[in-house]
Write a structure and sequence with these properties.
Number of domains: 2
Strand content: 35-45%
CATH architecture of the largest domain: Roll
Helix content: under 10%
CATH class of the largest domain: Mainly Beta
Number of strands: 14
CATH topology of the largest domain: SH3 type barrels
Order of helices and strands: HEEEEEEEEEEEEEE
Shape: globular
Number of helices: 1
């Protein structure tokens, strides 16, 4: 005869089923979280239609430090999504773990503090890539060359919705 507490435990396991706990998906090659953001290390990178050098080039990316979101992994290849939703495969050694942000607003202030009433240090235009120092729930601290400051998360792309980091 089984105890009542064991029966309750067994029923919990049976009815919980797979995937009811908050599980973070991980890449089958790196075991790192999927999706995740990285940046392009190389000045030129071929975005391919499939995971291998034999696949045609969809786009030639000509900008080091551009953030990309890794959505899948196959051996030495990473399927990535760009800021505009375009997807393709990049050779993994062309990527860096450095965190960068792509400015999506037409013109956004870089502020002295992560507060909307802070002093404006500079304005950045759409398409500028910033080096991220850290991101908090509403603001990211970033720099471009010698200029650094805080930018609203709503003005940039390069992080997961609830992600904070430093």
């Amino acid at each position: 005869m089984i105890s009542r507490s064991f029966a309750v435990f067994l029923l919990g396991v049976l009815f919980a089923g797979p995937g009811t706990a908050q599980e973070t998906p991980v890449g089958k090659v790196t075991n790192l979280p999927i999706p995740r953001y990285v940046s392009i290390r190389a000045n030129e990178a071929n975005l391919r239609v499939g995971p291998g050098g034999q696949y045609p080039v969809r786009w030639r990316l000509m900008r080091a430090s551009m953030p990309v979101m890794i959505v899948d992994e196959e051996e030495q290849w990473r399927e990535v999504e760009l800021y505009d939703g375009e997807r393709g495969w990049l050779y993994a050694p062309l990527l860096s773990g450095a965190r960068t942000l792509y400015v999506t607003a037409s013109r956004a202030p870089l502020l002295s503090k992560g507060k909307s009433d802070a002093r404006v240090e500079a304005f950045v235009e759409k398409g500028v890539v910033l080096r991220a120092k850290k991101c908090e729930p509403q603001w990211c601290e970033a720099r471009k060359g010698d200029i650094s400051g805080w930018i609203s998360r709503s003005s940039v792309w390069g992080f997961l919705p609830n992600e904070v980091f430093d």
